[in-house]
Amino acid sequence: MSEPTLLVADDHPLFRTAVLHVLRERLPQFRTLEAASAATLGTALQEHPEVELVLLDLSMPGARGFSALLHVRGEYPELPVVIISSNDHPRVIRRAQQFGAVGFIPKSAPAEAMGAAIEAVLAGDSWFPPMAAERSEADAELAARLAQLTPQQFRVLLYLADGLLNKQIAAEMGLAENTVKVHVTAVLRKLACHSRTQAAVLVKGLETEDAASA
């Protein structure tokens, strides 16, 4: 039987090491894995179904704001995700909650608070700092629209937002160009977008207000 596992997805090696230290001190019964990009996160989740919690940074290579969170939630709806970010603006925290995270830990949090938050989430609770930001109906609507997409359609959407042509998306995903065309049509229909540009603007809405500091 595979050991229960925690996955830390963050592109900063020093911070990753600090989180892993907290996990090994507080939760020695769990094995730990690391990922430094959206791509390696996806691979790790495919190869390790025993992962019980993902600790996810918002600004990794290959991710656009909340896109990695939405992708994990879409592909593994039972897997809890906790955001760990240096951007702890109240609206960022509120959006993380609305897009399906079960917790949000500011990177400035002391090790003791970080450990307590992770233990609370593993026990089935959620953990968020106090928030002043109001729930956003626009974010709720965006999350609902994106939830209609299959995981593969969501990947197609992100490639669309990067300006890739169908032929390029097909090469990236290992699909036939006709298959990509079908996916693009479905994505635009489900999102009620009339053009690829509209879809790209919608994806831009996933970015944090200050993506560089997230």
From TrEMBL:
The modification 4-aspartylphosphate is found at D57. Pfam families: GerE, Response_reg. InterPro entries: CheY-like_superfamily, EvgA-like, NreC/VraR/RcsB-like_REC, Sig_transdc_resp-reg_C-effctor, Sig_transdc_resp-reg_receiver, Tscrpt_reg_LuxR_C. Residues 5-122 form the Response regulatory domain. GO terms for molecular function: DNA binding. Keywords: DNA-binding, Phosphoprotein. GO terms for biological process: phosphorelay signal transduction system; regulation of DNA-templated transcription. The keyword Transcription does not apply. Residues 142-207 form the HTH luxR-type domain. Transmembrane segments: none annotated. This is DNA-binding NarL/FixJ family response regulator. It comes from Acidovorax soli.
